[in-house]
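Notes to self after the Tuesday call (sharing in case useful).
The group wants a holo model before anyone commits to mutagenesis around the pocket. I volunteered. Ligand is adenosine-5'-triphosphate. Logging inputs and output together so the record is complete.
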Amino acid sequence: MTEPPSSTATESEGATWMRRGRRYLAPLLVRRFPPEVPFGFVGRALPPHADVDLRIEAHRVPPARSLEIVHGARAVAEAELEGGRGGSATAELEVERTAAEELGRAIAQRTQELWRVGLRFVANGSSRSRAEGERFRLTERLTALGFRTRIPRYETKEALEPTDLLATESRPTGYWQTLSTDGLAALFPFVDETLLEPAGILVGLALANASPVFLDRWSHSSYSWGIFGTTGSGKSFAASLLVLRTRWLRPETEVFVLDPLGEYTGLVRALGGTVVRLADRSAGRLNPLDPETTGGDRREKAGRVAAMLRALFPSLRDEEAAALDTAVSRLYASDGRVPTFDDLLGEVGGMTPPPGRLAALLEVFRSGSLSAVNGPTTFRPDSRTVAVDFSGVPDDQLPFHLAYVLDWAYGRLRSHPGPKLVLIDEAHLLARNEPTAEFLDRVVRHMRHFDAGLLLVTQNPDDFLARASGRSLLRNLYATAFFRLPEVSAEARTFFGLGAAEAEWLPKARLPRDAGYSESLWRIGEWHLPLAVVASTPEYEFLGSALGTRSPPSTGP
Ligand SMILES: Nc1ncnc2c1ncn2[C@@H]1O[C@H](COP(=O)(O)OP(=O)(O)OP(=O)(O)O)[C@@H](O)[C@H]1O
Ligand SMILES: [Mg+2]
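Result:
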């Protein structure tokens, strides 16, 4: 073959290469994978100095078809075993048969799936010989890792064709591979444009090769993320870091923090924000009954008030709950006045026959420990960062307080333009009972319409998996980070599609008190990435002093 003349043509093709503009492209396909794909092999196959692109596309194979494929593979291995080839071939066939059996079981249990994966490397160079030299060195590295490669001949164009979403375009042999979920996962992590989202914030460094991962919350179908992990695993620190970096990149972002333990007071003050501590009566009042939070929609407000009161009085009998619903709807059916709990007590007092213990229970708003919320709203912060600190609130009242504060925050999200971030720590408190779990789910589903994202922080994903509303919420998180978990339940594994190796690794993920950073597994869309969450020195100093002011747990008002 001769070198192409330096014509004005932008594209020309040889048997095994292609020229585009000034670049020569030399594609390489994988003929055969090693029996075990080394985890993170891409980092070794593509060192930073290599001028090689890798593109992977993956299409899920439907479970029924996956089982057919696996059963087919087992049948072939069995037929060959019966044919009795003997020696090392027999051993290899037995391994294949067992692997197919195991994979078949995993697919039936939905812990693994099969993927049709399109994979191609392209070595680049400013001349044909440079590109081919780059491809030669890549071949050597892949061979050392146990791969068998193939150079497409007279098929360069087909190998380089852009991805068609339906995967129907013709491709050379060796382009398509069938891989299990674990096999596909082994192709990650590697630096790819999806993990270097241009307007994104740094979420962590890949544990495999320290490459940074940047995510742009605002560029996906859901702006909400979740963080799970055991106590001390670094969740609140990571959440603060994400808030800080979000603010740094988009200073106009409004931040609301629902802070059950009073951990974020320092951070919010350091950011120039306002903190209201509910247990501290002088801080101002949020009237849970104010329909301002639903933009004046009184029917919608009545539904939310009923939900928050049921969270406060979980022992209500059916007839009491029905009477409460009636009283609440009457409260909002009348004029456009802003009701207070005195008005609700008035409604209940006027009911005949008297609705069981309802009046006695609601008395807590007139003369008991909740009298602070009986009255018009006086807390109207004008800063862009607001935290509500629930420390000191009695445990049995926490879901109620969280519910109306969330309702209030939601009202603010609706009424303010621009990006907003809502951080809810110890979110299991809302997942614990049905009405607040449902409300939280609804909030998350609608938030995006108001340019808002949630950062949900809690210890155990199982708290959310136990209810349909919790599962729905989890499905609406675009990114989910798992820090150390004492164990990963079978439900969590299945729900999040975590592989066996990942589930075994999570209880061993390193803690910040030992490592100085926290290890985590991020599930970002369909990607699974082990990341180190690391703060830079200035960030650490800023957060260290801000988070250092954490108020002692459960001090009374
Ligand atoms: N990435 C990190 N780098 C350095 N220090 C960290 C990091 N993450 C957490 N820490 C430190 O580790 C300690 C525990 O972290 P943090 O409070 O965030 O844990 P948590 O998961 O929120 O625990 P809990 O469930 O008890 O609230 C804190 O003192 C924090 O400053
Ligand atoms: Mg915490």
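Two things stood out.
Confidence is low (pLDDT under 50) at residues 1-8, 549-557.
The chain is about 40% helix and 20% strand.
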